[in-house]
Fold each of these.
Amino acid sequence: MKHLIATAAFTATLCACGPMHVCTPTETRCAGSFVEVCDADGRWSPAEDCAGVVGADEPAWVCCAVPADELGPAGHACLPPDVACPAEEE
Amino acid sequence: MASDPTAAQVTAFWDAMQARYGTRIIDKSSAAEMRLVGWFLERIGVLDAATLLERFTTTIGRRIYVPFTPGTPTPRHGLWSQMVICVHEHQHVEQQDRDGTFTFALRYLSSRAARAAYEADAYRCNLELHHWHTGTIRSPRELAERLRSYGVREADIDVAETTLIAAARTVKAGGLITPASKVAVAWLRQHAPQLEHRGVA
């Protein structure tokens, strides 16, 4: 009986928590070759696979932290290997 | 700025994309199922039916419902705009191939965050095609604002803008991200190279 109550209490605790928010919406990060963006529900979501980007430069493009520019605030983006990664030079 | 496309180029482009993806276009105004879809989307708060029928191109499976005839410009849909729409809609086909048609439809209709993410992904095509054609970058905010018509939250629009800012930086550096744009640009370089902006490396 004790075991059953403990299990029920544990389950109720899990359910009461609702969706798990792990990040702040619009936050970005690199995860392997992916640029990930935190969605409005607070979950990391893959936004761009740098390994799949096609450009003039080879080898594959890489995910970089980038500073604020005319396009928007600091974040992460797929860039060619020869210009990567500007924010990390600081 | 490169030259404007001709009606023949727009028609040939749509034909080529349809052949590549196995899609077919349907006149939206004459499709009874679109009125039903419009009613349904209005009921669940995604889009109002009139807007859907008059302004939006809609892709369901491999059927693309268009509010214009490719190759015939209208005040709302110029010739270049029709080419961009073609790529945008075929990116939705790519999404369905990647996630499965059922999963795509379920997530698109039931999750505002997922719907915003699918549309932000497809709007990357607009960024990519615009850059290829003009050499300039469209405003990520302006593209993200278009999601207001899709029944998403303010926070979803902000996230879409973040996704498009990341894409804009990649596109500005000369990259192509979306599979549909890669297919489209390969065709355009071969069949309509004069549409590419001058000053290309």
Note: Chain B is about 65% helix and 5% strand.
Amino acid sequence: MDDILSQAQKVAEQAEVFQATTQTTPVRFEANRLKQIQTKESTTTALRLVKNGRIGFAQVNGFVKPKELVNMALETCIFGAEARFDFPANQAYPSVQIFDPQVDRLAIEDMVQIGQQMVDALIKHTPELVCEASVSKGITSVHIANSQGSKAVYQKSFFNLSLEGVLVRNDDMLFVGDSQSSCHPILNSETIVAEVTRQLELASVNAHISTRPMPVIFTPLGVASTLLSPLIAAFNGKTVLEGASPLKDKIGKQVFDKSFSLWDDATLPYQVSSHPCDDEGVPGQCTPLVESGVISSFYYDLQTAALAGKHSTGNGTRAGGLPTPSPSSLVVNQGNVSYEDMVKDIKEGLVIDLLMGAEQGNILNGDFSGNVLLGYKVERGKVTGRVKNTMVSGNAFDVLKKLGGIGKDARWVGGFLYTPHLYCLELSVATKEG
Amino acid sequence: MPNGKTQDLLTSALKGHDAEYVEIRLEESSLTRITYRGKHLEEIGKTSSLGGNVRALVKGGWGFVSFNNIKNLHNKVELAVKQAKLIGKEESKFSPTQPMLDRVTAEAKKSPMNIPLATKKELLDEYNDLIMSTPKIQTSTIGYHDSQKKVCFANSEGTYIEQNRIDVGLRLAAIATADGQVQQVGLSIGSLGDFSAIEGLQPKVKELAHRAVSLLSAPQAKGGEYTVILDPILAGVFAHEAFGHLSEADHVHENKRLQELMVLGRKFGSKHLNIVDGAAVPGLRGSYKYDDEGVPATKTYLIREGILESRLHSRETAAMMREKPTGNARAINYRYPPIVRMTNTFIEPGKVTFEDMLSEINEGIYAKDWYGGTTSLEMFTFSAGEAYMIRNGKIAELLRPIVLSGNVFTTLANINAIGNDLDMNQGGGCGKAGQSPLPVSNGSPHIRIRHCLVGGS
């Protein structure tokens, strides 16, 4: 790495090297049986240069020849965007706990056993279910060094359980599933099994729903599949800068329901989206995005922040190219309404766990429209069965403008969202007749 | 990659193990990406990769090892075999194929590799200026990539294949805003190695920017059931989402109930309905000579004259279902094992003209162009980039983008007209099991579907 940086500094005004090495071991179950054990190792080295004020970028996956990497990046500098930022100087990073040595020590045999327990528990509940499951562990090492003298090094461990089941009855298919992530090993599969069992029980009979506007309860899984993508797009500093976010001129204004708050937090201990610094060496932090319905901030990387006249919020993230703003862990505040009370409040309505295709609409505008892949009918205060052949459409920003209530209890979804249930008073529901 | 010696290297690493089957894949690739957001070029970057994997089969269990460091291949073979042994408890099922020795050069009519960066940028600048100079356009996004890839594959049965491919892709979006409303229109184009596929798009780019602006004042469809006509691009996405994924045997092979549902010979549609998948058609984005298990590409009738005829297989799923491998095992790169995937999927043309299809509809929706699509096998949703009401046999007002949804078992039977105007869409990428976007193409003539569920206000 030092060699790359020193060679790059000879030809450019500023330079930054990012290197990540990841080892993962996924254990996969298919059709209720152990099927595949994988070991994956990868190393990525990326170089960002600033020459004549312009940004160049090159990345090598695998063995690096420093000179070749520098030349590749130089070739792109000529056309690159104008750099508006300086790489961060050497600084102290917050202490964020994201490494547990127990992950590395856990034997593959133990992972196999956890997977088998998950599958066995579900099959015991519903013998005709066909399950897929995976138990994965891994470690990532990140090194960042730049020409301003900054050096960041950290290691992260991660562990993931994932469990899915499909039940086929005549022409009817039911999909259930959940996943759980942590920087600790997850040795106890009771939580994930209980969640999937809940889905199976609620979906054990089918119910028919009307075509009309009605109240909808989004479970934490439902919030993730329906409302999350529009929020991620609208709070992205880049979308705001371009004027494509409906929230662009709403800082300090009451836009959402007073009971709703949302923040981005990279410092939560042992969460897989946490880190002491982002992928360009800016310290991780907690950034309030919505406080009691008032828009308080957007999230930024270095370049976007510089263009917008703001400071980076430590959200520069790489996905094969230059860093770009992306959230770490998003957290929705907990409210004071129990899920049971939300259900009791409804004459005819829906509970949504998974809205398929919701993110295919015009998410910039907040619009969503999707098929209720996993959702349940509420009738006179009780959940009466699973709903099929039904589409739900709406606008995420309208939903959050006037909430019927926010749940008391929250949970992690997919390692990047911590949210309670959200109760929406009215959404458009269309269903197939007959 | 060690030049010329790769075959010897892989063959020697494959010696001396006690697994039933082992394969090694080495892959070398390079990628150029250019992105624009708004008035300015945002990113231009180059990536090069070298890596590989080993897959081993022992008594029905698979071990898989992927790596960037291609030294000590022997140790990697050993690790994959050791992992497979931890699992293997039953009899392996794996279809036999002929060992192959072949070298396949890349198809490239006008290779992007021979075009200077400055020329690529000039073309993209022109498209971006066309979008940004349209009144009421707030911003744009443009994503261009070209890549070349060389894959060397060897297995313990004596196969050694080298394949090269070049891929080009361009996605453009125009974003219009007014009064707190944001509307966007996109265009996605791809090609197997032909840069000219993304040239000469000026009229299309202009049109898409104007349409984004028109959407600001367009109404939203009222949710409910409609008779819809899908254009060839969207009907191709429909064929891919609604039926293609269900035809992938890895969903079916270990699920008895699903096998009963997908029993060959089951009637799915009218006798005019034919759905095909195959990589053996040359020159399309999902085309290749051998799949990632070294099986030669084929052309497979999934549905012939309305009847389920066959499905897409890897060597393992074919053996499990006692059917033939179809050459559909694909891996997006060396970090993943091959799984059953589509290639070029399309509905074969019929005889009905678009005008006749339209004239029989009193109130319906004409849905065009692709925005996205997904499936749960039984249920699918896909969204149209462009939609219009149909009133009294004529195309009427523009609508906001719509999402269509349905149940595969009823929707295919509800297709009541198949057009005569087959067109293939090369701009798509398919995602499955974390491997996305895999280059595929799909297509169809115009088709008409009764009782299609449309989300709306």
Note: Residues 346 and 381 of chain A are 5 Å apart (CA to CA).
